[in-house]
Each structure stands twice: as C-alpha cells, then as structure tokens.
Amino acid sequence: MTTMKAIGLHRYLPIEDVESLIDLHIEKPNPTGRDLLVKVQAISVNPVDVKVRSPKGKTEAAPRVLGWDVAGIVETVGPHVSLFKPGDEVYYAGSITRAGGNSEFHLVDERIAGHKPKTLDFAQAAALPLTAITAWEGLFDRLGISHNRDLNDGKSILIIGAAGGVGSIATQLASEAGLTVIGTASRPDSAQWARSFGAHHTINHHSAFLPQLQTLGFASVDYIFCLNQTEQHWSNMAEAIAPQGKICSIVEMSSPIDLTLLKNKSVTFVWELMFTRAMYETADMEEQHRLLNVIAERIDNGVLRTTIAKRLSPINAANLREAHQIVETGSMIGKIVLERFE
C-alpha cells in the first residue's frame, strides 16, 4: 500500500485542542471514471471547514479529511477523463460528499475542476475556487443577473459581508457586470478592502441598512447577496430590497424567519450552495469546470484579482489549526492559504 501525508480528525473538538486536526499517513487513492488524481500544492480554508470540524458528539473510525479549496498538478487520470491530462495545473473546490483536499494527493471529478490561472502561483490560485464558484452561481445562476453590462445599467446590488472570501470575488464580478455595488463592512480596514475590490460604496451591517442607503442616494437596491448571518439581517434586507427585487443567501438559518415580509414587494428569495451540482451530480455539473476556466481567463487578463490575504507554510496540522482559528473569528478579510507539503 502506498501512503501519503494528510491532515484529518477522528473527533470533532475545539480548535485549541491539538487532537482537533492531526497529521496522518493514509492510503494514496487511485483515479477511476472521470476522476483526476491531483498532487496538492496549496489549500485554502473556508468557513465550511470550520463548520464541519466544529465540536459534536461523533467519532470517526477512519480519519476524516476536510478541505475544499485546492490548487495542484494532475498526476494521473481515470479512464473516462477527457478535459485534462497528466501535468495540467488545476484548481477546484471539490465535493462535500467526498474526502477533502487536505492531503498530498486528492481525487476530484474533472467536471468540477478548472485550469489554474497561468499568472498565479498555486497559493494565489487556491484562494479562489470555492468563493469564485459561490459568487458566480449566486450572482448569475441564482439572482439571474445578466452578463450584459447594458442590461445592468442603473441597477444596484447590496453585498452583505463584502470583505470576506466570497464577498471579495462577488464585488469584483458584480462591478465588472456593470452593477452599482454597495458592500457592507464594519471596520475601516474591511471597508477599504471592499472598495479596493470594486465596491462603489460601503455601509455598516451593524446599523439599519435603509437609512444608510438613503444617505447615499438609494431608495432601495435591486439585488441583495447575503454572505453573513441571514436571520440577523432579514428585516433589514426586506426593508432595503426593491419591489420585485431578488435576495440570495449562502448562510443557513438557525431559527425561522418570516417570509411574509417579502410578499407585498413580490420579492424572490433563493439559496446558493456551490456543492449542490457535485452532491447531486446534476446534468449541468460541468458548468463549474466552465466557470472556473472563465475566472482563470479573467484573472490572466487582469480583469479579476486573487483574494489571498495570508500564507502559511508548510501544510501540516499545526498550521491548519492556526488557519481554522483565524477563520473561526469571523473577521477574516480575504482568504488564508497553506502551501507545500514537506
């Protein structure tokens, strides 16, 4: 049996516990079907990692490996692969229903992987996949925003949590699509970060939205993309959204909300989960391959920028625990990336 290094868990513990994420040697997998076997060069940490790892009364007999942002090099391919070949540099978020990418080698379905941006190193690329897919699907697939700038003329979007990982990409994509972007941020550094990535205005999400929007000259907004605490912002969103507007959220609710608040305005509410296509192997699963390639092209053309904010090296349990602690604070700006196994 050929083994590889990985970081995983047997028990779901507070991140301060050294057993919460541990260094492992596990069996190196082999690709079948449409799978790529990727030699992992860099990984990024997202709130979903923290959520899955969070304390719960459950034990894993076999170690569980997390991680849903990878950049690496295709080592070998399954017999039905047609989109990639060994040696290709790739980046992707993977599937929540399979082993994660916090390992030296990782299997991913080619339909949800993209060619890595040529102008970025592996760490810069690893910061992008999960957030780029989430932002793209949220804006264009769920909210139905047009790619045609002319059709978006005069339209506005409020992005709640604009300085975070998804917000940093969504702000760029929405601005590029011709929307007026208002981002929420609660600190001077996060507000500056949001503006540097294309937000035309910023407001504070700890205060009522509508009065701040009115001060900026907006009676309402056409779209809202909620990336933070959905139920906490629910009444503010209902008040700020335009009649026949659309709201998309990526954050599940821990308590019921009143959908009736949206009725008089005939407002659409929709969810975005970037794992849906891979989880259910939908007929359009390959759309994630396509959109990652488009993102890479726009990165290489200088239209979009990576959102990496912090690097740690090497990839090991101690550094991964540090990354989880930082993300767990909820105040992370941009993305944190680990690079290189040793």
From TrEMBL:
Q: Which keywords appear in this protein's UniProt record, sorted alphabetically?
A: Cytoplasm, Metal-binding, NADP, Oxidoreductase, RNA-binding, Zinc
* Any coiled-coil regions, as ranges: none
The GO cellular component terms are: cytoplasm
* Superkingdom classification of source: Bacteria
Task: Tell me its family.
Answer: Belongs to the zinc-containing alcohol dehydrogenase family. Quinone oxidoreductase subfamily.
Under the heading Pfam families, the entry gives: ADH_N, ADH_zinc_N_2
- What is the protein name stated in its UniProt record? Zinc-type alcohol dehydrogenase-like protein
Principal place where this protein is found? cytoplasm
Has keyword Zinc? yes
Query: A GO molecular-function term, please?
Result: RNA binding
Tell me the compartments it is located in.
Cytoplasm
InterPro entries per record: ADH-like_N, ADH_Zn_typ-1, ER, GroES-like_sf, NAD(P)-bd_dom_sf, Quin_OxRdtase/zeta-crystal_CS, Zinc-ADH_QOR/CCCR
Q: Which NCBIfam families match?
A: adh_fam_1
- Subunit structure, per the record? Homotetramer.
Residue intervals of the Enoyl reductase (ER) domain = 16-338
